[in-house]
Design a protein that fits this description.
alpha/beta; Nucleotidyltransferase, domain 5; Rossmann fold; 3 domains; 38% helix
């Protein structure tokens, strides 16, 4: 059987391979998915890839499966581990952070100002995939980025370093890395914060993904991946962002919610309202991602349980404390019937907390003219659609009700999505694969994703 494309999603624990066909026609199709435990830590990711392909063959009832193109996204072995180093936290550091998160990075370290000896030791210990250096608006402050570049270049880490600061420094930064015999690892981008209140993160995000694609095959256990993947490899969260941006052009402003066992990611694609933009204290990117590393329904379930409290859980789930503790102690990645109500409650809390952290807010302040209203953070008040992806929200029976509950519990001072936002479920759980596929087949990718969403649109009451 020959098809147009296979897209692998290499996760920390599971590898999924999705099959697509008829990409160059008016009726592109999603054919099915195959699953297998990820084997990157065993030293050869291809074992997991081949296992997932074999499972896919069974689903498609075929002995042979050949694809014209093969793509992949990866979050295995910690995903794309980055550090970000800028000048002022709320300015250049924030801009660099937004660029990294939007590209799908797992940020391990953030610093503002000149790196000290403790920072350098931490960088050496983190086993990073990429480092980003920023700092200074164009034709502004230069010293911080130059000093940080010298210190990082002299570490000779042999990993990609992206410079996205004051453009006046670009030639000197090149010289610094050349003198340290690290020129092959340096990538120059436009300044992510070229002038006050101006975030320019799109080009840097693309460079991060290109660098990831070029260097991911050098990571332990990933060096053989190119024997099966002949097209792009990008970070899985970055792929979800690409799919979200594709949908926003077609449907209007949206957020995508991805609740997993370890983290909860929210991607928003919106400029917000003109009224809020006028009173916004600091700029926000149109496409923004936040990742909450403490909010997960399996690995980080204890954090969510502590936020809710066991007393409240007993009351809501109609259990006594001993029964609740039994459920928690026996809790599984895929919950059984007894654990299912707890999973739904943890999913609701994860969405509630993550959305609260992602959303901006209104602030009442006083000046010489009296009380004035300002805004800070991401304005979600113009959101039209909420897209649910990830294991929890695509598989739980009450997924729509969970989302409705959070939307209906609106704080007037929070810049959260309106209650009337439409809710869509990524029924086939293919947003990450669609994001990768869209980089070469945008029209077909959009049609296939809309098919997955249209199957289970949730009607708001």
């Amino acid at each position: 059987m020959r098809i147009d494309a296979l897209v692998a999603e290499i996760g920390s624990t599971t590898t999924v391979v999705n099959a697509f066909d008829d990409l160059n026609t008016d009726h592109p199709r999603f054919l099915g998915s195959g699953y297998y435990p990820t084997t990157v830590l065993e030293g050869d990711v291809n074992v997991g890839l081949m296992g997932a392909i074999e499972d896919l063959k069974k689903q498609l009832n075929t002995d042979s499966l050949l694809a014209n193109e093969s793509f992949a996204s990866s979050s295995a072995a910690g995903g794309l581990k980055m550090s970000v180093h800028g000048l002022v936290y709320n300015m250049t550091v924030k801009a660099a952070k937004e660029a990294a998160l939007g590209a799908g990075a797992n940020i391990q370290m953030i610093t503002a100002g000149v790196l000290d000896d403790y920072h350098i030791e931490e960088i050496k210990d983190l086993n990073l995939n990429i480092i980003m250096i920023a700092g200074g608006v164009d034709y502004g402050e230069r010293k911080t980025a130059i000093e940080n570049a010298k210190k990082i270049a002299n570490l000779k880490l042999n990993i990609p370093i992206i410079y996205a600061g004051n453009i006046q420094n670009q030639n000197l930064i090149k010289t610094i890395f050349k003198d340290a015999n690290q020129a092959d690892y340096l990538f120059i981008s436009d300044n992510v914060y070229p002038k006050i209140d101006d975030l320019q993160v799109d080009k840097t995000r693309k460079i991060i993904q290109e660098v990831f694609h070029q260097h991911i095959i050098q990571a332990p256990g990933m060096e053989k991946v190119k024997t099966l993947i002949n097209q792009d490899i990008i970070p899985t969260p970055g792929a979800v962002m690409e799919a979200s941006k594709l949908l926003q052009v077609e449907m209007g402003d949206l957020i995508t919610v991805d609740i997993g066992g370890a983290t909860t990611d929210i991607h928003s694609v919106t400029k917000g309202s003109e009224a809020i933009e006028k009173i916004l204290i600091a700029p926000e990117p149109m496409a923004k991602r936040t990742v909450e590393g403490d909010l997960g329904v399996y690995i980080n379930k204890e954090n969510l349980i502590n936020i809710i409290s066991k007393e409240k859980l007993c009351d809501e789930l109609n259990l006594d404390l001993d029964e609740l503790n039994d459920v928690i102690n026996e809790y599984q990645v895929i919950p059984n019937q007894r654990q299912y109500p707890l999973t739904e409650r943890l999913t609701l809390e994860a969405f509630k907390q993550a959305l609260d952290r992602h959303s901006g807010r209104l602030i009442k302040m006083f000046n010489a003219s009296g009380k004035v209203m300002y805004a800070e953070g991401k304005d979600l008040s113009n959101i039209k659609h909420v897209i649910a992806t990830g294991g929890a929200l695509t598989r739980l029976k009450n997924n729509c009700q969970i989302i409705k509950t959070i939307l209906n519990n609106k704080n007037e001072l929070k810049l959260s999505p309106p209650k009337i936002s439409k809710i869509w479920i990524d029924h086939h759980y293919i947003m990450a694969s669609i994001g990768v596929l869209s980089m070469k087949h945008p029209e077909a990718a959009l049609k296939i994703l809309k098919q997955s969403l249209e199957m289970v649109e949730c009607i708001q009451e």
